[in-house]
What does this fold into?
Amino acid sequence: MSTEAIGLDKGVDAASSPTIKVEIYDQAYTVRSDGDPEYLKELAEYVDQRMREISSGTLTVDSRKVAILAALYITDELHSLRKIHDQADEQLATRSAECSEMLDRLLKPPRTLDRASAS
It folds into this structure.
């Protein structure tokens, strides 16, 4: 089992950041991060789970190929969720604009004709 140190956060000072040990696909990694250690462990477990799912469904035993396939799977998942999020944002913006227009119409004082001044 090999161990590698990885700095996850951009600009992380390797000397001052705490290290978290995680295991992904039978490989131990020491990760330097100022983030939540439990969250980082959850991420590592997720990657490990995806790699194991992929390796059980393919004939390849090359861990790098399994990692690339897992990365593609996770990236597809991310892009699908982003698309759903963007569509929800667009729908929310449209509905918000519609509600705003309705409120403007309801709150606008009605126009009255001043018949006395017209005569």
